[in-house]
Design brief:
five-stranded mixed sheet; globular; about 50% strand; 7 helices; single chain; about 1000 residues; mainly beta
């Protein structure tokens, strides 16, 4: 191709699909992009959206530079004076560089040519890190239809092996991420572990940020998923997409058995089925040409499933629909308005049946439960350009979520019955059902609402681009959780005949009598109330072109928040001065031609408290345990179904009711929350290098360091010098730091250093404090990329990382606790004294993806991810010179000590303990996931019909990704299944997606 032809060719700068993971982006979670470059001073540059007619014009400055910001992503035509127009593709959050010669033609020395297109491979105007992936690229790859599957394409993002799932970005926990749709934060405000979503075909482009956010956004110490939806154009279009994922196309999950031959606690899984069928219809076009456009979609989903165990089975019906729409109004070329609305409400009904495994037949229906989720969402965004150098943007939106579950009418009369592993070990389960409740679940409901508003401004002043703004989010949660029946749940526990006195001691101080081999923990649990948090922030940022080749990004962000109770009283708050986040970045165009770049950034990132912690402390919780001897079982009849079941018979009560875990609704939180509570922050440093290799290839390398040295947790305070009142309370503190609490004994504030005080051992009466929390993440990332040229594309990355510390974050994946900031890290000093590799430490990560077009009819794609397994850590129950438990005996009871008893375990004075570091028991195996797809396109001009068949986990490797971590039930009594699997990689499955667009 000659130079003259290139000058007139389209500049298809596809930064989403082509620039991908190599180029950092400048606009953080912004929903727009920009075009910038150099040209002759005084030239007039005009850019026009070829699909909507939106046009902007700027004049090149005296220094020969120009910039056109706040452009909706899409394809544009750029002209300079009378020169031939060139095509420019603007991607989400990126800056596309187009340098023009004196005659208005493209300067090819500063761009990369791929086939007939000119691609900007190195974004020299950016100091940040992100991966952009467009809808077009995803259509060429075997990527499942979920936001999480898209995020996993980015280096440093892994799927957590925790029992509660989620994504880990850069060593962080699953409760530190944020998700945005068209600029609206849709992250769960209650636990910060989920998010609202729309159908896959509704999205236009994704931006996955793994670090280095600009000052514009915060409230995340993990990662950010930023997505935009599709919009209408001047041409009418429509289509239909059908996704078929029948159960026959999925390999069965394996049945898992323990080393002693007993089946895993999840029971049978080999006959479980989760077929999926869905159809969506969409349409788009102009309401008023060049001015008002619409995009609308309706999707019908059928996701019925079966969960079949040895003697029970559950059938779930989930026939749900989705609706969504977007309006774009170009009021004129300088003012636009966007409206987004969607509903992701979903309901399901699960029916419980008797089941005979040998004959594979369903018996009588035993019960039914219902579940609900989702809500209605909307946002409005105004963008105004006031002159060539000043832009303003305003956004307001509402995000609603819900989570409800129950089993009427059984909730009114059936108690929750469960078995501890200690009981299972002594008394194998029989054929008759124990208890009549169909799900054994609590009755729960939660309704969340976020109202989000923000203002953003851009002001170009010579070599400076000033960006500043403010935002506010008000997040309300109304929740309740209680046990069914009379509000009491019964857990059956076993006691070996040869148990020691220490084994027989109960948490309420009573003893299980000698000769008793089974007892009951009757727990009454009720919690919930309306709570709220208001979060506010402002930021200022200067993007300063110190020289034509050196850009400095200087920013600062200040956050504040206030968590309030149902009464309106303040639970916890932080002012702007408490949460200052400086940000500094640079980008150096080493050769001055845009082909080679060194970049880096340093910043501090804060994360606020969730509504969960306010709900737990501010709403009031009844959590009482009463212990009884088990006097056997009595046979009962379910009045609803007529089926027979067993009910435990309670015998002698053992000791008093344990009310130590009760948290009554407070009218004064001075003893519940530290007065000067400091907020969690993370410092991050990134240094990177990028370079074009030739006209198709580019590569990059970067290093990341993250450090977190603060936590906000409920802490077991059993001693405070000068205030005897604190002898067994769990206030919210900054563990390992100085804290100030109210002392009811003296009616005054008392300040103590929780690294030296706060805990007193039982028996030996030694006063001590808690280790200061710490988490570090170190990573080196290598990446090579080959841009799509209409024929093939390829991307490969390797990440070497290490995540270590003494706490994972606001959740605890190792013990299966996901109540954010309430995960028992500081219920005992033994829980956090160990420093070492953490749960999300995936030392090696390899990711490959590629696509190839054979001809106009056939194309292929493949992905491969391989990562080393996580560490295996043992959790004991005691530590030296203390007679108090540091962790519960059951798998998900929280806490745990690194000290394991090997001899004389009955007495804390004589027991011999061996220290066990984090990860001392090796690592789980490598996890491999290979995907492949083939796409057939009807080779008829004018008819857009495609069928894509994809296979996920092609090798059907059902590798273990989490294990039982409880080592002891009591000192010296090893748990029978330590180190055996609890979570496995999903098996192979396949789907067919047929699309017809017109």
């Amino acid at each position: 191709m000659n130079r003259k032809m290139l000058k007139k060719a389209a500049l298809s700068v596809a930064l989403g699909a082509c620039l991908g993971a190599l180029a950092p982006t400048v606009m953080a979670q912004s929903v727009t992009g920009a075009v910038a470059g150099r040209a002759s001073a005084g030239d007039t540059i005009t850019i026009t959206n070829s699909a909507t007619g939106l046009s902007r014009t700027v004049t090149v400055g005296k220094d020969g530079s120009y910039r056109i910001g706040q452009l909706p992503p899409g394809n544009y035509s750029l002209t300079a004076g009378d020169a031939a127009p060139v095509s420019v593709s603007v991607s989400l959050g990126g800056t596309t560089t187009v340098n023009l010669a004196n005659d208005g033609a493209v300067n090819l020395d500063a761009v990369q040519v791929v086939g007939s297109r000119v691609v900007n491979r190195v974004d020299v105007r950016s100091t940040e890190s992100a991966t952009n992936i467009s809808r077009q690229e995803l259509a060429r790859l075997p990527v499942d239809q979920s936001v999480a599957a898209v995020a996993l394409l980015a280096p440093g993002v892994i799927s957590s092996g925790a029992t509660f799932g989620g994504l880990s970005f850069g060593g962080s926990s699953v409760a530190e991420n944020a998700v945005y749709i068209n600029g609206l934060n849709v992250t769960d405000p209650y636990r910060r572990q989920g998010f609202s979503s729309v159908p896959f075909n509704f999205y236009e482009e994704f931006q996955v940020k793994t670090g280095g956010y600009s000052a514009e956004f915060g409230r995340s110490t993990g990662g950010v998923i930023n997505a935009i939806t599709r919009s209408g154009t001047n041409d009418f279009h429509g289509g239909m997409e059908v996704t078929m994922e029948p159960s026959a196309w999925a390999s069965p999950k394996k049945d898992h058995f323990h080393s002693d031959g007993k089946i895993d606690e999840r029971d049978r899984t080999s006959r479980d089925r989760s077929p999926l069928f869905k159809t969506n219809l969409w349409a788009s076009g102009p309401i008023v040409k060049d001015r008002l456009f619409f995009f609308a979609m309706y999707e019908k989903r059928d996701a019925d499933s079966r969960d079949i165990d040895t003697v029970e089975a559950w059938k779930t019906t989930s026939d749900n629909d989705f609706w969504g729409a977007k309006l774009d109004w170009n009021i004129n070329n300088d003012h636009t308005l966007e409206l987004l609305a969607f509903s992701d409400k979903a309901d399901s009904v699960t029916s419980n049946y008797d089941y005979d495994w040998d004959s594979a037949t369903f018996g009588d229906k035993q019960g039914e439960s219902t579940a609900g989720s989702g809500g209605d969402n909307w946002s409005a965004t105004y963008t105004g350009h006031f002159g060539a150098n000043f832009t303003a943007k305003a956004m307001y939106g509402v995000n609603k979520r819900s989570a409800t579950s129950g089993s009427p009418p059984w909730d009114s009369y059936c108690n929750r019955i469960s078995r501890d592993s200690s009981y299972d070990e002594l008394f194998p389960k029989g054929d008759m059902k124990e208890g009549c409740h169909p799900t054994n679940s609590s009755i729960s409901s939660r309704y969340d609402k976020r109202e989000a508003a923000r203002l953003d401004f851009e002001w170009a002043l010579g070599d400076h681009l000033l960006r500043f703004g403010l935002d506010q989010e008000t997040m309300d949660s109304r929740s309740s959780v209680l046990y069914p029946g009379d509000g009491v749940g019964y857990t059956l526990l076993g006691m070996k005949p040869n148990a020691t006195d220490e084994d027989r001691e109960l948490p309420n101080g009573a003893m299980v009598p000698v000769g008793v081999t089974a007892y009951v923990d009757a727990r009454r649990y009720i919690t919930g109330a309306p709570v709220s948090v208001k979060a506010q922030a402002f930021y200022v940022e200067d993007n300063w072109n110190v020289t034509p080749n050196l850009l400095l990004n200087l920013g600062i962000r200040a956050d504040k928040f206030e968590n309030t109770l149902a009464s309106g009283a303040t639970f916890a708050k932080a002012d702007f001065s408490d949460m200052i986040s400086p940000r500094l970045g640079f980008s150096w165009d080493m050769r001055g031609d845009g082909s080679t770049k060194v970049f880096g950034n340093a910043g501090r990132y804060y994360i606020p408290l969730t509504n969960k912690i306010t709900d737990y402390f501010g709403g009031g919780t009844t959590d009482e345990h009463t212990y009884y001897v088990l006097n056997g079982w009595s046979e009962q009849v379910d009045p609803t179904t007529g089926a027979k079941y067993l009910r435990p018979e309670l015998g002698e009560q053992l000791g008093p009711v344990d009310t130590s875990m009760n948290a009554p609704a407070p009218d004064d939180v001075r003893t519940a929350v530290a007065r000067d509570l400091k907020q969690v922050f993370q410092d991050e440093y990134i240094l990177g290098f990028q370079q074009m290799i030739d006209q198709a290839w580019s590569y990059g390398i970067n290093a990341t360091y993250r450090k977190m040295t603060r936590a906000v947790e409920d802490v077991s305070i059993r001693h405070v010098e000068g205030c005897d009142w604190y002898s067994g309370d769990w206030p919210i503190l900054n563990p390992g730091e100085k804290n100030t609490l109210w002392c009811p004994d003296t009616n005054s504030w008392v300040t103590f250093d929780s690294s030296k005080d706060g805990y007193i051992t039982s028996g030996s009466n030694v006063v001590m404090g808690y280790k200061k929390p710490r988490r570090t993440y170190k990573a080196i990332e290598f990446q090579i990329d080959r841009a799509w040229d209409g024929k093939w594309a390829f991307n490969a990355s390797y990440l070497l990382s290490k995540s270590e510390g003494n706490m994972e974050g606001p959740v605890n994946s190792g013990t299966g606790y996901n109540d954010t900031n309430l995960v028992q890290y500081y219920d005992h000093p033994a829980v956090n004294e160990r420093y070492g590799v953490l749960f999300n430490d995936a030392r090696h990560q390899i990711k490959l993806r590629g696509s190839y077009k054979l001809n106009e009819m056939w194309s292929f794609g493949a992905t491969l991810s391989a990562r080393s397994g996580g560490p295996i850590t043992a959790y004991g129950v005691r530590w030296p010179n203390d007679n108090r438990s540091a962790g519960g005996p059951s798998e998900y009871s929280g806490g745990g000590s690194g000290w394991l008893c090997v001899a004389n375990c009955s007495d804390y004075k004589t027991r011999e303990l061996v220290y066990s570091p984090l990860g001392a028991f090796g690592r789980m195996p490598w996890v491999y996931d290979l995907g492949a797809n083939v796409t057939w396109t009807l080779p008829v001009e004018g008819i857009d019909l495609k069928a894509r068949f994809s296979v996920y986990n092609l090798l059907n490797r059902q590798t273990v990704v989490n294990v039982h971590s409880r080592y002891e039930s009591t000192p010296g009594n090893r748990m029978p299944y330590f180190g055996e699997g609890t979570v496995w990689q999903p098996p192979r499955y396949m789907n067919l997606v047929v699309t017809w667009n017109f």
